[in-house]
Amino acid sequence: MTSVKKKGILGDIKESLIKTLFQTSGMLAIIALMGIFALLLYTSVPAFKEIRLKEFLTSTRWDPTSPEKPEYGILAMIASSIMVTTGALLIAFPLGVAVAAYLSDLASPRVREILKPVIELLAAIPSVVVGFIGITITGPLISTIFKLNHGLTALNGSILLAIMALPTIISISEDSLRAVPLSYTEASLALGANRWQTLIRVKIPAAISGIVASLMLGLGRAVGETMTVLMATGNARAFPRGFLQSVRTLTATIAIELGEVPYYTTHYYALFALGLVLFILAFSVNLTADIILEKQRTKLQ
Amino acid sequence: MTRSVKKVSEWRGSQLAEFIGFFMLRIAVYSVLFILLYFFYDISSQGYKVISWEFLSQAPRRGMTEGGIFPAIVGTFLVTLITAIFAVPLGMAAAIYLNEYARAGRLTRLIRLSIRNLAGVPSIVYGLFGVILFVNIMKFGTSVLSAGLTLGLLTLPWTITASEEALKSVPDAYREGALALGATRWQMIRTNVLPYAIPGMLTGAVLGLARAAGETAPIMFTGAAFYLPYIPQSLKDQFMALPYHLYIMATQHHAIDRARELAYGTALVLIAFIILFNLGAILIRSRLRKKWRH
């Protein structure tokens, strides 16, 4: 502890330099987020010299490489993204909340200690491996069950995205179920309600905002997922008509076309405009989840 | 609820509901476990067949229908190393600022909000950002450096969050003790906070790096190569990476059926890597904890 003696002007300068260094690193998060938005916007703008914004947002035809009349409508892709994501959440949300309720109310501490890392492991599986599973396991399964030529459909994407959204939904829902004050549970049990009634009528209503936030965060994760949908949904460019059709999402379109597009063409800029749409979608979903969680935190305190 | 207390006859019904309800919760857990185990079983049992020393130590041959995945293993290792050099110190520094210096206020709230939103930005959007900033503006080209920096940015929010958790777990009494003895803030952090927080910080960092190593979308356009028979010689070289290689083998190969076995092998190696990373993180935590607690 000799260093404590070394105070004085030099020491003060050193202190404030160190603080500035740490502060700058903290500010980097703001800079990075705004930088991503600004650069995407900046690179998207040239696309709209040739594409009318109305066509971009409302047309269902995306055919940028057509020699006669290139078309840049994103509606079919938006619809595909929404469809695959909705399907995923229809599967993942009930399943995830059930697992969260099991972890918070039924599992013994020992079982929870084993289950939680296992679920974290599920989150650690790379999306490209999940996509590979879609090609080798779930895709063929779907084609056998529904008697299709191939199983690379919206349904396949939904099932796989559900698996990927599960860890998020489980962990956030479980956190908010455990954040419900013990006095609520005790009061309910003391009134003669059993544990199931307490869970359904007291704990879940009290934790509902956190559970909804988990849904939003799962949605954010699913809508931005690229490799899984790229590998598992068949990438047909038409407007989606059902879960047993191949679809092509926003993310998959960027992944397929960015590798082949010549730099600094309208098509190139249009792909960054897709990225911007994706960024805004994910940002609004995450921000909503954030606001909901913040409200819950203040309510339960 | 009050009604169910009054009428004894309703007790039967509510007990049945409890039984069925809890049964369904169990079914949900078992099905999630079953799915997870089945995936691991399928990939290990199929991938196991092609794993050999040759597969791990040689480059792909004959249009990637034979040979191994050595360049992809080395490429993934190198790009993760660059990610670590970039993201780990920055993430730790940001966490130290947030937990040790920052006062509650608008700026701090804004930083935290940005971190949470960065974590939700889709990985392909990071890829696009990497193409503009690192490949084009900074002129690093499609290279292992561009890809590493892109992945670094992607892991930054995870590293910050994990590091802050570790800092939070250090009791305030340690800080107060140092300050009461006349230590400056940085002396306090160095002697009384970091030694206890570092194990947790490193664990979080390693877990974040494991996720980065498995990402494909951010590196597809910033530096990963379809096929390279050699290992990158400089930071400006392109590289092969395990996740991208798996994507190619599973979808873009001219002879998908012959490549399927090798794809399984690649998937198994990738998963094994990530599990090793995770185990490594746990090991680091317990080792360092023991060392610093005495």
Strand percentage of chain B: under 5%
Low-confidence runs of at least 5 consecutive residues of chain A? none
Approximately how much helix is present in the residues of chain B?
Answer: over 70%
Taking all Cα atoms into account, the compactness measure Rg of chain A is 24 Å
Please name the CATH topology of the largest domain in chain B: MetI-like fold
Q: What is the number of domains of chain B?
A: 2
Please give the alpha-carbon distance between the first and last residues of chain A.
40 Å
- Under the CATH scheme, the architecture of the largest domain in chain B is Orthogonal Bundle
**Record field, number of beta strands of chain B:** 2
Structural class of chain B: mainly alpha
How many H/I helices of chain A? 12
Topology of helices and strands:
The complex is a heterodimer of chains A (301) and B (294).
Chain A lengths: L8 H36 L8 H6 L3 E2 L7 E2 L2 H32 L2 H16 L2 H19 L8 H25 L3 H9 L4 H12 L1 H17 L2 H6 L17 H8 L8 H35 L1
Antiparallel strand pairs in A: 1-2
Chain B lengths: L1 H5 L3 H38 L5 H5 L2 E2 L4 E2 L2 H32 L4 H15 L2 H15 L6 H25 L3 H9 L4 H29 L3 H4 L21 H11 L3 H38 L1
Antiparallel strand pairs in B: 1-2
Describe the structure.
- The complex is a heterodimer of chains A (301) and B (294).
- Chain A is an all-alpha fold.
- Chain A has two domains: 2-49, no CATH class; 62-300, Orthogonal Bundle (MetI-like fold).
- Helix content of chain A is 73%, strand content 1%.
- In chain A, helix 3 (75-106) packs parallel to helix 6 and helix 4 packs antiparallel against helix 6 (154-178).
- Chain A starts with 8 loop residues before the first helix and ends with a helix.
- The mean pLDDT of chain A is 90.
- The mean pLDDT of chain B is 87.
- Chain B has twelve helices and two strands; from the N terminus they run H-H-H-E-E-H-H-H-H-H-H-H-H-H.
- Chain B has helices spanning 2-6, 10-47, 53-57, 70-101, 106-120, 123-137, 144-168, 172-180, 185-213, 217-220, 242-252, 256-293; strands at 60-61, 66-67.
- Chains A and B meet through helix 1, helix 3, helix 4, helix 5 and helix 8 of A and helix 1, helix 2, helix 4, helix 5 and helix 6 of B.
